[in-house]
Amino acid sequence: MDGSMESESPTLYEYEPTNIFSLDLVLEGFLLKEQSGRKSYVKGKTITWNVDSEYFTMDVLMDGLGAELRVGRNQSVTVWYFDMIMAQDVRLTHKDQLHVMFHMYKAEKKLTLTVVVLDNSDSETPVPIIDNVVHVPEATIADNDVLLMGMQDFPLKQSAQVDPSTLVLETDPFDMVEEYVGVDDEYMYVVEPSAPVPVESIEQGNKIWEEEDTGADVFVHHEEEEVIDIDPAGYTVVHDAENPDIRVGALFPDIVTFRKSIRQHAILVGFKLAKIKTDKTRFMAECAHGPCPWRIHASTLQDGRTVMIKTLPFEHNCPTTKLSICTMASQGWIADKIGDWVKKNPGVGAKDAKGKLEDEFNIKLKYNKAWDGMKVALYQIHGSYEDCFPLLFNWKAEIENKCPGSIIEIELLKNGDKYHFNRMFVAFKPCIDGFLAGCRPYVGVDSTALNGKFKGQLASATSVDGHNWLYYVAFAVFDSETGENWKWFMKQLHRAIGSPPGLVISSDACKGLETAIDLVFPNCENRECVRHLYANFMKKFHGKVYTENLYPAARSFSHRKFMYHMKKIREANPTAIEYLEIHHNRLWYRCGFGEASKVDYLTNNISESFNKQIKDFKGINVLNLFDKIREIITEKFYIRGQVSKQLKGRILPHVIKQLNALSKTIGRNKILWTSENEQKSPCWI
Domain for residue 598, yes or no? Predict the structure, then answer.
């Protein structure tokens, strides 16, 4: 279509001045059938286009794809996108759909289109899964299938044209739009995440407070001690730790500072010190290169503290040491140089520190030296692992004092005359109250391995709020995922939240956890994460019939459709059904979910979102780990409190947006009367 034809059609929606969208086109791999009969597999790829939604037409789309793809005579190119309102995949066939699609993703300015090449010579017309589930397709179902009579029309899924075992999985089949969990999405309401957090925001229950702005500038005068610029002993010391001044007469605050400065100077210049003699009042050394005449002598002055360089008779005439492993870089020097950097980037490791120092100082370091320096830096920041355990009781007392009603349980084990830390559970009072008062009764439970000096598991119970943002309920630390530990954790969780009506607990395939849920929450709905189920199932059963039916069965809202897919699996291998009934007998399919929770997640994404959020802190000691999680929760409470002040009415803005978009898809209704009686039965079309 040309531009004139496009302008004649009525405009469905008003567009913002900025109409540039980023399109990620996922070109799925396919089997190219050439006219000569030769067949070859074309690998998939992803390309990105920046397009103007006002001038982007179906002709432009298909012409662009024609330049990217070469298909056979009996093959055609189809394009699909995920409809967020209908929660299903939609094929692009005409220009009006483009208007609807761009309007739907207007806020994001970015969307994914999946391009699938179909073989028109086949008797069946395959249809793909588009919502990032392209490698777990549903089976094609005949239009006259008795199981689907009377069901709403929907696009069915594509049968795999290539053996799934030969494909490289470049997308996550369980990364679905409808199961998205927001972690840092508050920016949509123009709230700065780095805003200062009131100290007592989590200590005041669910009521986040801040002082009222009076609109006037208030100046508070604090008396300060008089600053005396003249050194009492008459010595003025100006010292640059990064680029120390090494010359005769140069002054340093003390002997320790001088030692650090001469080491820094040696690393910067590229030489090694030898024959070092030092004590509290003096320092003497020579260059390690034999023929080099360089030597230095420094000692304290009359004040007994300030150090002056007194002898430095010769310059260096030695070759640089920067081309070999740097032995002057001690673990203390490394800790000083990376301390602030590690504090700001808690997820970095020794390899990152090694690369940073080598690039910054043009030296060569051994990995174990960087590792030792990292350990010293972490100790200086967080303290030792051993010292943190007694301080947990101080932390518990402070939280209970400032935030009464919080549940903090520390359990010890007695070994002879000594007590050892065993496990700890934390649930803040605001988190408990917020979950019971404002969240749907849905909890995801999982654990992630700690990787610090003492190994263990960080267990968590999380939920989602009205925005589908991650909500923190409780967390704990124990040594391993045993049935006893999970039972203890679930008892503490029950102590915190009780058993709300319609409670749903989602977990992975951990048997100890499932047993604990049965014991502590016997009346809850226990769901199993399909991601874990699918991974375990595919280790034992391989074949096209499983990839085409297992995951679609889980996504089915209709029991009839669910049974259709399960029947296909049973016909292929009855043992597969027996495996599911024995090893995965929790709820993992949507048609079996209850309606009370109003959550239809198939995966345990909320737990995975929490694990990802705290992954950079899993190596620090338990005390600092717990306090870091407290800081994250406190900041989220404050930011979301600011967001709530901008909301008006009783319905969240994103829900209103979805309803408004859905209303524009409602067609014109026609009433057909099916009875001539006084009470007529209308049939809506």
Answer: no
Report d(CA 513, CA 510) in Å as an integer.
5
Query: What is the rounded CA–CA span in Å between residue 300 and residue 325?
Result: 33
Tokens of 214: 């009076």
The last residue of a domain, from among 145, 179, 213:
179
Q: What's the token pair of residue 75? A: 């093959």
d(CA 133, CA 354): 40
Residue environment code for 447-486, b if the CB has 16+ CB neighbours within 10 A, otherwise e: bbebebeeebbbbbbbbbbebbbbbbbbbbbbeebeeebb
Structural domain that includes position 143: 3-179
Q: Which of 382, 403, 418 is the last residue of a domain?
A: 382
- 116-172 pLDDT, tens digit per residue, is 888 765 434 444 433 333 333 333 333 333 333 333 333 333 333 334 333 333 445
| Count of all residues that appear for the chain in the document | 685
Look at residue 84 and tell me if it is in a domain.
yes
pTM as predicted: 0.61
How far apart are alpha carbons 72 and 462 in whole angstroms? 50
Q: Please name the residue ranges forming H helices in 219-317.
A: 255-269
Candidates 564, 638, 543, 551; CA nearest to 590 is 551
User: What's the number of domains the chain is made of?
Assistant: 2
User: Which pair of structure tokens corresponds to residue 139?
Assistant: 């089976």
Gyration radius of the chain over CA positions: 33
Compute the distance between CA of residue 261 and CA of residue 244 in angstroms, rounded to an integer: 6
CATH number of the structural domain spanning residue 24: 3.10.20.90
Cα–Cα dist 600/589, whole Å:
9
- Say which residue the tokens 């259709």 belong to: 564
